[in-house]
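Lab notebook, entry 433. We have the chain sequence and a SMILES string for zinc ion, and the next step in the workflow is to get a structural model of the bound complex before anyone spends time on docking refinements. Request logged below.

Task: model protein plus zinc ion, output structure tokens.
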Amino acid sequence: MARVTRAVMVRSVKLPRKVFRLLVELEGMYHNMVEQLVMYAIRNNIGSFTRLKAIKYHEMRKHYPRLPSHYVYTACQDAATRAKSFLRLKRLGLAERDYPEVMRVSIWLDDHLWRLDGYTMVRIATHKGWITVELEPHKQYWKYINRGWKLASEAKVKLDKRDRRLIVHLTFIKVVGEYKPEGYLPVDVNENNVTILVDGIAYLFETSTEKLVLGYYYRRKFIQERYDKLYGVKSRVKRKVVRKLKEREKKNDIRWKVANIIVRVAHGKQYAIVLEKLGKKVANNMIKRVRDGWLRHRIFQASFRGIQRAIEEKAREYGVPVIYVDPRNTSRLCPVHGAPIVYSNGSRIGRCSRGGELWHRDVVATWNLLLRAPRGDGSHALSPAGLARVDGSPVPLGSTATHDPTGIPKSLWTRWKSLPLTQYATILNRMKR
Ligand SMILES: [Zn+2]
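Result returned:
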């Protein structure tokens, strides 16, 4: 069983002055409490919530008698968290001051201090009784509600003083159990594509991550240089433009899109996803021609580790099991004959040195990942003998189609939510033959 959590932020409607003033008072008291508690905790070297609460509870209750008692709990939690991380910095010699500054606060709420009223109202306990605040739920919020996610009992609220709104930080939780896999879906992540093998058919998703990352990098650099010259290094305009670019970068994040498709296919078929244990890719040094170390790191993250991580996280959400296998030589050995495949310089198509058949590099990798996936009983997902009968004819000798991946351009697949049904139909037809 895995516990999956998602943070969601919801704003309230613009609040009446009277209600907002009440919240400002509440925030003020909470702020004071946290400040005092942090000071005390640092002075006495306390990083534990239970200890801090045990020592300070009664005193705080006396100072703030009208405040619901659980605010002392949450303020202690808040303060202990701040104190703990500050004490750590201090120990490491990294603290710049003697005490941490409590600048802006979110008010921490536990289950005694707030509740959802219906789905669009939130009730909050204050020093003047309960108040009700109307929310402005958005699409994402409804998605979690409708898909059966549960709300955590803790929440945090912040005041937007300029807009007279409350910003509510909610946490959604889902507990998902993994199913027992009925098959395997190997995924080979490469620099510029992700290849999967679904029931003997390989799909190659073009990602061109390198180009994408480089593109954003140079655009950001260009903006920076230009705006620095025009408006100075710390200009507001530049920050705004860079932020816009970042948003676009995030929105176009192909990692989540490809992870979504793969996990949905696996879930639909109740398969386990087979990934390579990372390590080989680093050694491969595929992106060594990029000089800038940070940039190389970014490309690597975006194309390998990042995609794997996105798949892992999505898989957890859907209860899809993930299996890791040794990635050594996955694209170098023929999955049928176990003999080396010879690639003539730079080509992605190679010839098996024993059988003489042709293989696509990324497809070979997926077959080998599949072969290496261990089953629950300790045996392997497929034996090379079984492989030869996957679609009724020896693979890949019988047909040239099977070892050629169905290449899917980015412009097409990024609009998909899963593999389209027509693709499934093709697979089924091929399987029947
Ligand atoms: Zn072979």
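Notes for the group: The chain has two domains: 2-176, 184-214+251-432. Worth checking against the assay data. Residues 388-402, 422-433 have pLDDT under 50 and may be disordered.
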